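Q: Can I see a sequence and its folded structure?
A: Here is a first one.
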Amino acid sequence: MRRKIRILLAILRLIAEKEPSYLLWSLPQIITNSALSLLAVYVPKRILETLTGVSTFEKIVQVILFYSMLLLFLNMINSYLSNRSNLAAAKFASEIRFEIGRITMQLEMKDIETASQRKIIQMANNASGLTGILGIVRQMISNVITIVGLAWIAVRLNVLFLLAIAVVLAVKILFSYLQFRFNIKARELYAKNDRVGDYLIGLAYFDNGAQKELRVNNLQGWFMKKILLYREKMLQLQYKDFKRNALFESIMAVLMGAQSLVVLVILADSYLDGTITIADFTMYFSAVTSLTAALNALTQQIRCYNEQMLNFTDYQKLVDLLTQTKIEATLDTEIPTQAEIVFDDVTFAYPGSDKNVLEHLNFTIQKGEKLMIVGVNGSGKTTLIKLICKLYRPTSGRILMNGKDIWSIPNEMYYRSIGAVFQDYRNFAFTLTENVSFSENTDSKRIHAIFREIGFGGFIDNLPKGINTSLTRQFASDGIELSGGQDQKLAIARAIYKNAPLLILDEPTASLDVKAESEIYADFGRMAKGKTVVFISHRMAAMMLAEQILVLNGGRIEEYGSHSKLIRNGGLYAKMYAAQSQEFIATESCS
C-alpha cells in the first residue's frame, strides 16, 4: 500500500511539473460529480412528494424549476471543468510523448538495440495517459462520497439491501482482480505484437529499399502472409479479452437481476404494509441501484488505478535507463577548434556478448592528422568508429579528446565537435537545405559552395526550387529521388557543412564510381585542411588523403604507419594494396 501511495505522489508530481492546470480543473469535479449522483436519487423523491401531496400547480412548477435549474447549473459547471481538464490531459500526453522521445534519443545504442530495451520504450508510451490516474482518483473519491450517502439512505429501510449489494460487490471485486492479473500479461503481449506491426507497416509504406525488394522479387504474397499472421495474433489477443469480459459481464448481469428482484420484493412489501410511500419507493430503489453501480464503478476504478501504476512503473524504467547511462560531465562549454583522439588500452565487446571485437587498442590521432583504418571484413573497423562517436562505451580503457575522456564531455558539445558519414547513413524526407544544415538558420551560400565543391552544384541548379527542393515524394508531390551516388554526396555535404574539428567517414564513397571517388577525396583533402580526419576505405583513391594508416586484424592493431612505410614492411597492408592494385588495373583495362 505504501508503495502505491509513493507512486501516486510521484505521478502527481509529474503532472504538476508537466501540466499543473490539469490539477486545477480536475479537483473541483469531485464535488460536482458527487452532488450530481446524490441529487439524481433525491430529486425524483422530492418531485413525487410534491406531486402526490397537497400542492398547487404553482408550487409544483417552482419545485421542478428549482431542481432543474440546480441540475443544469451543476452539469454546466461539470461540463466546463471536464472540457478544460481534457484539454490539459491532451497537453500532458503530448508533453510525455515528447519526453519519451527526448529520453530515447539520449540513450546509448546498447540501450535501444535489444528486444528487452525496446519493450521498455514501447510500454513507456502508456504513460501518456497518466492524467487518467487523477481522473480515476477523482472518480474514486466522488464514488466514496456517493456510496456513503446512498448507503445511509438504503440502510434506513432494510439492512438486507446492503447484504444484496455486498454479494454483488464481492463477485465484482474477484472479477476485477482476475482481469487485472490477465492484463499484466496481456499488455506485454500487445506491446510485442505492436512492435511487429509497426515494423511491417514501416517496410510496406516508408522503406523504399524494402518496397523495391518486395516488387522485384515478387514477394507480395509472402509479405502479406506476414501481415496476416500479425493481424491474426492481434485478433487472438482481442478475442481472449472478449471471451473473458463476456463471461464476467454475463455472470454480473445475472447477479444484478437477482439483486434487483430482491430489492423490488422488499420495497413492494414495505409499500403494501404502509411503511413507505411511492416517493420513498422510488428513492430507495434508485439509492440501491445507484449504490450498486457506484460500488461496481469503484472496483473498476481500482483496477484501472493499478494498471496506471504499471504504466508509471514502465515510464520510470525508461527514465532510470537514461539515469544509469549518465556520468559526471565537465563544465566546459567551448567547442574545440582542433581535435586530438587518443585510444588508451581500449577493449570492447557488444552488450550480451563475451567475445571482444576490439582488444587493447593504443594509438593517437594527432590534431589535423588524416588517419585511414583498413582491415579485412569483421576486423572491427566500423566498431572503432562507433566508439569514437560515443555510440558505445568501451568495455575497458578510455578514449580521450584533447586529453579528456569523451564520456565526461556533454553529448551536445561532443557531437558538435564531430561530423560523420556512416556506411548506413540516412537522408530524410525534408528539403535538401534541411538535410544539410538540420537547422532553421542556414547559410544558403555556403551550402551552394559545398555542393559545387563535391560536384553536385550543376544538378541542384537545374532544380526548379534549387536547394529548397524536397527529398522523396513521401510528403511533397514535387519531391525528387536521388541516385545512390547523389544520395551519398548529400550525406557528405552535411558532414562538411557542420565544420567540426573531427571528420569521421565510414566508407564515404561506396556508391561512387572510380572517377567520382577520386574527385571526392581530392575535395576532402582541400575542405578538411586543418581538421582531424578518421576514415575507413578499401579504395586506392583514399591513399592520397591518408597520412597514417591503421591496420586492424582480429580486433587488434596489426600495423600502423604511413603508406610507404607499410608497403616496405610487406605485411597485411601491402598484400591488400597489391590485391586492390590488380583489381584497379583490371577495371581500367575493361573500361
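Q: Show me another, different protein.
A: A second, unrelated one:
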Amino acid sequence: MYIYFPILILGLMNVKKIFLFFVLTVVLLNNVLAQIKKPALKFKEEAETTIIVSNEDYNSGYELFLLNKPKEAIPFFEKCIDVENIDPNVYIYLGVAYYQIGDFTRSLAICVKGLAKDNTNHKVLAYNAGNSAYALGNYARADACYAIAIKDFPDFTAPYLNRANAQLKQDHLQDAKENYIKYLELEPNDPQRENIEKLIALLSQEIERRAKEKPELINLDEMNVQNSSIVVENNEEKVNYDLPEEKLLTDDVTEELVKFDIAVAPELPKTEEKEIIEKEENTTEKSVGEYIAIAVPPMPEKSVEETVAEKITRDDVPVYISTSVDSEKTEVNDDFLQTEIIADEDLPSTQYALPAGKVAISVSTPGFSPNSPDFKKQKQIINVSASNKSNISNYKFEILDEYGNTVKTVIGKKIPKEFEWDGKSDSGKIEDGKYTAKLSVDYGNGNFVNSEEISFNCFSSKPKLSVDSEPDDFSPDGDGINDKLKIKVASESDAGIEEWKFEVKSQGKTIYTLEGKGNPKDFEWDGKDKNGIPVNSGTDISYSLSVTDKYGQVSSNSNTVHVERSAPEPVVAKKVEVKMNEDGTVDINIPTLSFKINSSELTDTKQNNDTLKKVYEILSDKLYEDFKVLIIGYVNPDGDDWTEEEKVLALNRAKSVEQKLIKLGINSSRFNSLAGSGKTSNKEFNRRVEFKLTK
C-alpha cells in the first residue's frame, strides 16, 4: 500500500502534465490559425462589444487630411468607407474633405449615409449635413439636419445658431427668433450678443407688424449674422478653429505643422449661393473656413488637448450668432432625411475617383470686331473659373459658329484664367456671325465636366453705305429753282451705327460740316458755307459722308457736284436796301463803296458817306439792334482764283468799313469781318461790300 502510493502520485502527475500539454497545444494551434486568418489590420478597443478598425487606406487618408490635402485623401477614405467595423469617423472625415473641395452635394450624401449607421457620431454628422445643405442653398433640409443634431443633444449650441439662420432664410421669423433667444441662453457671453439682440428686436417688430398688416419681408441687410464656428466632439466643448487650408499638390511636402484658421460662415441675410472657385495651380486654394463651419471628429488615439497642441494654431476670432427652436417643438423624420437628401445619390464603394469640379465661362463683351481701330475691342476675352484645377487630365476649349461647326479649338492640361480669340478660325479666316464658346474638362477616371455654352457676336465687316445726291444742276442762288442739294443715304451694320459725319469741300478746304448720332437719314444742304455764304457759281464742290459703327469701323462715300447759278448776274444796288430772308437773316444791299487803288482806305466821297450813314441808321433801328453784323469784302481778281494778297485786301476793306461804323456809334461786339471769294463778269459788283445780319 505504501509502495503503490508514490506510484499513484507519479501517475497522477503524469496525467496532469499530459492534460496541460494538450490544453497548451490547443491554445497554440488556435493562435497560429488566428494569425494565419487575421488580415493586416490594426485593432483598437473602443468599447467592450465594439472593435474599431483602421486599415492602411484609412491611415493614409487620415495623414493626407492632416496635411490639408482633401483631394488626395478622398480616394483612400472612399475605399475603406464600407469596410466592416471601420473607424466610424471615416464618414465625418470624408464628408469634410468633400466640403473642403466644394462638392457640397457629395458631402451631404456622405454625412447622411453615416447617419444611417448605428456606431457613428450622429451629433457631428447631422450638424455637418446641415452645413452642407446650407451651402447648397437648401435651407429646408439644413433646418431638418440641425434638428436631428439638437434632438438628442439639446446642449449642443452650434446647430441652434445655424438652424435659426436657415429658418430666417425661409422667412420663418417666429422660429428664428426663438432659436436666437435659445442660443443666447446657452451662449450668454457671445461676443456678438448685442448684434443678436438687435436682430431679435427687429424680428419681434416684424412679427407684430405682420399680425396687423400685409406680410412683407423685412430688410436685415445691416445685420451681420453668420453661422456658428467649428465644433470638436469629445469633451462636449466648442472649439473655435478652422479646417486646414489646403497646400500645393507637390511631391516634396516637408511641413510638419498645419495652421488652422478661424472659420467665417456666409453672411446673412444675403441669399447668393457661395461657390468655391480655386485659384491657379501655383497658388494656395481656399479653405472651407471662407464659407461655413464644419464639425470635425476627435483625432484617433489622441485626446483633443494633445491633438490641438500638436496640430492647431488658435486665433481668438469672434464666433457669430446662431440659435434654434426648442427641439421638443419639431419632430424630424429620419427616414425623410435619409431618402430625400440622397434621392439620386449613388455611393458605390468601388468608386475611388475624385469628384469633378464646377467649370464656368463668361465673355467680357457681347461682341467684338477684329478690325476695330481700338485694340481693346479687337478680341473676345472668355473668362474661366473652375472649382478644381489641380487634378485635370486635359481640357478642350471650342468656339462654334451658329450652325454648330467648330471653328476654333484649344486643347491643354492646365486651364488658363482666360482665353483670347481674335476672330480667326483654325484655318485663319475671319467671318462675321454669332458664335458660341464652351469648355470641356476631363478629370480622369470618367469624370467629365462641361461648362454652359456662352454666346457672342463677331463683327469683322465695315458698315455698308451708299450716298447719292440730286439735282445734278445744283444752283443755290435763292431763286427757288434747285436751291437745295438733297443727300440720299442708305447705311446698314449688324454692329450698329454709332455716329455719322457729312463734309463739303471747295478747293480742298472744308467749308461745311454736319454730324449726328445713330443711323443717318436723308437730309438737305442749302449750298451755304459755315458763314452762311452761298458757294460760287461755276465751281465744283465735293462732299463726303462717313459712318462709324460701335466698334470704331468706318465706311465713307463721296461725290462731286457742279454749282451753276440759274439766276442772272446780280447788279449793284442803286440805293441802300433791306432784304428779309426766309431763314430770319437780313441782307443790306448798298451801292458800291469806292476805295483808293489797291488800298483798303475809303475815299472821302458823298456817296460813301451817305451810304455808311444809312447803314448806321438801319443798324441802330430797334428792329435790328439785336442782330450781329457780318461784313464781307470783295475785290476784282486778276485771274479766276483769288491770290493771297487779294484775299487780304478784301478783308482789310471790310474792316475799314467796320471801323467807320464803330466811329459812328455801333458797338464793336456786333461786328465780324471776312473776305469773300468768286468772280463775275461785272467788275463793279466784284468790288462790293456786303452786309448780312443774323441773330
